[in-house]
Amino acid sequence: MAHEVTAARVRQVIKESSLTQAQFAVKAGLDAPKMSKSLTGTRRFTSLELAQIAELGSVTVDWLLGAERQLPALAARAPGAASLEVMQVIDRARRLAQFRSDLAFLGYEQNVPELPRLPERRRLVDQGSYLANQALAYARAKGIEPHEVRDIADAIEDAFEIDVAILDLPDHFDGLAWSDPEAKLIVVAASEIPARQRFTLAHELEHILAGDDQALIIDENIDDPERKKHPSEMKANSFAASFLMPEDVIREAAAGGALTEESFAQLSVNLSVSPSSLAWRLHDLRIIDRRQHEIFRRITMARAADLVGSVGDLAEWIAVSSRSRVPGRLVRGTLDAYTEGKATIRPFANLIGADPSQIRLSIDEAGVPLP
């Protein structure tokens, strides 16, 4: 039955191309007799053949297979974004998810861990911090210490195999988490406020690892106290704080005595978090009192960097966080699929926004074997 659906859709693509079956086979780079056998049911299309047909016909492999994609669970942080702008962001995420779905069909699947979670009857903040500790243990087992990595997108991809994209998004749209059976994706905004971007990455990571099944959630203001009372947001914020500022690391850093403005600033810089977030975390762990919290939370990132002589590092971090980033694992996967003869060069070229013929020439010159 599934093969009949695929054959029917391939015939539809050929018909809409205004080419004969033989002409279509030649243009798609297929063997005409083999394609004829596949259309009559005596052989199956290979994954590469379907990729070539999909490319020429401007359709997806999923559509050729007759696979109706499930709507994803979505969670977003987008204060003040208009509905049209939100839909445009979702459409960009959908295209990235389609790349991942096509790779999964070719055998390049994500292996996102299912981590232990506390029962839902437990406090929301405890659920978030517990999941963060599980995530930290999982990352550390792979030799990754997230709190030591300033540009945490790579760490998330390497530890959890979740695709991470940093894009130019509408003003005040912080991020989005996409989760469907074949694609797990985090999209955050390129930003000149790197600590906020980093917190958002950790926040969206929780939504995926926790399996949050939410419709699109838009935060009118991510700092709005009412918004923070939403159950999923409470868990995600608790997770992000514990993930980026691990309790064992915090307590070790504070073991040398009372924190001064300089030692506090150094800890903020070392952890790549905002002073205000660190002040809340220290107060929550009862390492500092309310008076110290009030003092420390007023320190700006620029002031903290100046106190420890790292203004240049802060400027570099701002420059990095302001740039777009295509998911690294997705880039590697599409290139692997091409070099291993399972896909054409076009998905890789489309993903990085390059001309396919130029990319093919560059790969050829680099000595990468061509299929």
UniProtKB/TrEMBL annotation:
Residues 10-64 form the HTH cro/C1-type domain. One of its GO terms (molecular function) is DNA binding. SMART domains: HTH_XRE. CDD domains: HTH_XRE. InterPro entries: Cro/C1-type_HTH (IPR001387), IrrE_HExxH (IPR010359), Lambda_DNA-bd_dom_sf (IPR010982), Rad_response_metalloprotease (IPR052345). Pfam families: Peptidase_M78. PANTHER family: ANTITOXIN HIGA1, BLL7220 PROTEIN. Belongs to the short-chain fatty acyl-CoA assimilation regulator (ScfR) family. This is Zn-dependent peptidase ImmA, M78 family. It comes from Jiangella alkaliphila. The lineage of its organism: Bacteria, Bacillati, Actinomycetota, Actinomycetes, Jiangellales.
